[in-house]
Amino acid sequence: MANHLQDTTTLHNGVKMPWFGLGVFKVEDGPELVNAVKSAIKHGYRSIDTAAIYENEEGVGTGIKEGLAQTDLKREDLFITSKVWNTDLGYESTLAAYEESLRKLGLEYLDLYLIHWPVEGKYKDAWRALETLYQEGRVKAIGVSNFQIHHLEELMKDAEIKPMVNQVEYHPRLNQKALQEFCKTQDIQLEAWSPLMQGQLLDHPVLKEIADRHNKSVAQIILRWDLQNGVVTIPKSTKEHRIIENSQVFNFELSDSEMTQIDQLNQNLRVGPDPDNFDF
Which residues form the NADP-dependent oxidoreductase domain (predicted)? Predict the structure, then answer.
């Protein structure tokens, strides 16, 4: 289990992925984003997660460059993730999208590249492109995002390489127990996006009670619950004090009964699209 901000989980191909990172969904490209990435690196984060559709890869790249310059760290000390968008889900178009992401980020490789959504009839061609990138040593690990069990089963029928990561919406109102169990049996690392349910859980009485007991914020309780469930988590923030606070989840532990209390908040409730019923 993660006991430190720099602790890692080992993916099934041997690559080490930090348990905790910074997400930048809906953060506009510009100085605020650059400073958020720099702050995260300064305060011990080693993982940054972006995507082509966020339209902020250039700012993330600038933040990485400036963040590294203010430390003794090297590029290989960081774990950088991006994702191919739905409109680029073809073999050649995915390869081109990867090159474009690298160009915008100013990097020579990514640590993790994901298919953003399981667009029917398209994701298998995109996966072949990811396999090519991986086999050529252009990317350290490959995976998917928003894939349900049946998507993973369908992908793996023809795949040469099994996904290393599945990044999905995951929070106490959507704890994805069946998907998590499936991924565990397949040695696919589950990763949470929107772990705080876009702030909708911060006033929940059960979570507030547990937070008071530990002298922590509700956000910290949720993020700790993620980690104790073996789920990589990437909370988003642009404010330095919140970036610091979010990462202070390694000096306490939730009890089994507290974990169960939080599990029982599940309502299979999404704040994002349903992967089985979306139109992009």
Answer: 31-266
Q: How much is the pTM?
A: 0.97
Which H or E element spans position 140?
A: strand 139-145
Q: Which fold has domain 8-263?
A: TIM Barrel (3.20.20)
Burial class (CB in 10 A: 0-12, 13-18, 19+), 149: middle
Rounded Cα–Cα distance for residues 140 and 13 (Å): 9
Q: Which of 45, 54, 123, 134 is catalytic?
A: 54
pLDDT at 261 over 80: yes
pLDDT of residue 76: 98
Q: 47-49 and 79-84 as β-strands: parallel, antiparallel, unpaired?
A: parallel
Give dist(CA 24, CA 29) in Å, integer.
10
At 63, list the tokens.
Answer: 């933040």
Give dist(CA 154, CA 151) in Å, integer: 5
User: Residue ranges of the domains in the chain?
Assistant: 8-263
219 touches 248 (CB < 8 A): no
Closest alpha carbon to 118 in 3, 275, 280: 275
Cβ 19 vs Cβ 48: under 8 Å: no
